[in-house]
Amino acid sequence: MKKILHLIESLRRGGAERRLISDVCTLDSQKFQSIVCTLYDDDALRSELEHKNIPVYSLSMKHIYDAYHGIPRLCRLLREKNPDILHTQLFGANIYGRIFGKLFSVPVVMSTVQLCDYSNMEPGLYSCKRKVLDYLTGKLCVNAHVAVSQSVKRHLMTHLAIPQHKIEVIYNYTDTAFFKANLAAKEEFLKGWNIKSSNLVISSIGRLEAQKGHVYLIEAFSRLIRQYPNLKLFIAGKGSLFYYLKSLIQDLSLEKSVYLMGEIKDVRELLSVSDIFVLPSLNEGFSLVLLEAMAMKKACIASDIPQISEVITHGKSGWLFEPKNIETLTQALEELVVNTNQRNQLGENAFKVVQNQFEKEKNVKHLESLYESLLSVS
Hints:
Blueprint: E1 2-8, H1 15-26, E2 32-38, H2 46-50, E3 56-58, H3 67-81, E4 85-89, H4 91-103, E5 108-113, H5 125-141, E6 144-147, H6 150-159, E7 167-169, H7 183-192, E8 200-205, H8 214-224, E9 231-236, H9 242-251, E10 258-262, H10 267-273, E11 276-279, H11 288-295, E12 299-303, H12 306-309, E13 319-321, H13 326-338, H14 340-357, H15 360-377
Parallel strand pairs: 1-2, 1-4, 2-3, 4-5, 5-6, 6-7, 8-9, 8-11, 9-10, 11-12, 12-13
């Protein structure tokens, strides 16, 4: 049995974190023994791993530069566990894991890359240092990169000069059996938020950061509700823009129609009651929550960026709009608000796309094959 140490920044409720948990809980336990280590103590999802008897450690770092705590603890863990593969995710974990994996002669060091877009990098010393660190450790320390989309693969090749043969595309995925509407949860949600059957629910799930584009969704919604007062918008997630978005909602007099829910434990509850799901992101690696909404047969509207257009075919399995364009987003929302048949058809088509291309078992088998091929040549 081969031992895999998974190093990630935290176990908060994010897409990369949920992808890691799904990976380690699905990998063949007869072939691979998984160990998880985090840089920080944000461990909202830790219990899901412990429930599967997967050991979880933390370096208890305070921030990315907290090498005083991080390095000795990581070195001790590498000595004690002596992994066959060190698999890292997210920038901080990538840098520490790559360097010390190499120093401790771990046979295989690999990184899953959720997002790699240096094309819009802000000028400044911080951004330059970040890119140089990513470039040097990626070139010198990593046996293989896992890109979660073809777009991420292209960025790795273009901006970090990673050779094509060192990049494997293994898409984010979801479990269609798990993501099914729960009628009891739906009724409870509607009652709890005082939503009537006549209301049409629009939802969006994601960190409340500028990259996620919630501002444009709220602005588009404010135009639409004048004509369709039965609409409700639920935005789930936490982040630095919470109070800004709350103020925007108040300025637009939308307090009775737009709800900032904060972080939610189970996205299925919100998706179950949603008629339309919106992902207005300006940039993504490969959205896991979009796949989950599609798996639940929801009509999806999303930004027309390369990472999303790999999943959604406009007008067939979803609706795409130009990023930041409030006018086209408003038109897309109105198109689906008034057309129930189109919403239902898009939802059915979306489910088939997920079922055929982004189902869990297929993609985890791909990861297992990559592990085995890398170990055979290490």
